[in-house]
Amino acid sequence: MQRRTFIGGIMGGAVAGMGRTMLHAQPAKLKAGDIPMRTFGKTGEKLTIIGQAGGRFPLISEEDAKAIVLRAYDLGINYFDNAHSYWDGRSEEVYGKVLPPLRKKVFITTKTTKRTAKEADAELHLSLKRLKTDYVDLWQIHSVNEKEEVTQIFGPGGAIEAFEAAKKAGKCRFIGFTGHHDPYVHLEMLKAYDKYDTILMPLHVADPSYLSFEKLVLPVAMERGMGIQGMKNFGNAKLMQNFSARDCLTYVLSLPIHCTAIGCTTIGQLEDDVRIAQEFKPFTTEQMVALRERAKSIKGPLLEDWKRNVETQAGLLDRPVYSGG
What we know:
Elements: E1 37-39, E2 46-48, E3 50-53, H1 62-74, E4 79-81, H2 90-98, E5 107-112, H3 117-131, E6 136-141, H4 147-153, H5 159-169, E7 172-178, H6 183-192, E8 198-202, H7 213-216, H8 218-224, E9 227-231, H9 245-253, E10 259-262, H10 267-278, H11 285-295
Parallel strand pairs: 3-4, 3-10, 4-5, 5-6, 6-7, 7-8, 8-9, 9-10
Antiparallel strand pairs: 1-2
């Protein structure tokens, strides 16, 4: 499903074929280097506030994917997100065909879903081969969704051993983790380990109303000084029926994060997002509250189908917020 050509809809509407409306009648010419940058938490790295992600590349051709990556770089984006599992490895191969000549100028991330040290190390070795680099800037434990995974990652022979070894060996500069399913699992990951450099989580205008990463996880990550990355800015396109792309992206960028990953399938989408980033002015507190109120009418698992469904589990959303440790 494409981010901005979502077919059907949780409200019964259809936005397929609408594409993206022009942000301006006569949009200003895009200039490279005009994207704001933020310091990526305790890593000290300077990253553009939006980054190009490879998760949507299976929806387009390899040539189109390469063109998007090159255009993103030309427009000043320096953060490039990927994962071992995207497109069965072809997304990493796209980066490997475009980014090597630019290696010193870009920040490359990848991820592994493996939970044992042996399997994770094997995936990193293959990822580096696909990316045609001898290191990644950030390697992440990918999509941690259940508490049982946390136990495995930090148990004997768990993936964390491979991550620490890779960082020590210079195969990755920083380590972190990601997840979509349950903010309480993110909190378990934070409780289990205090040496992460970064964190990646879904953040968008409807998130505060249902199993909220913004409310539960973001404050802890901020307190620890972690590099904070957002994703799901447009709710897999489902938010686009009720909110503009500008409102969606500006909301996320107005949060205390450092960058957010954008999955584009056309040059036009990429340029629209870059324009929003270049023109970014943070929403006021009042504007943020008003957008959250609007989003309450569409909250829940039908919108955020990547999150755990707790609709029938009374009281689960009222559990106390994790306070650190």
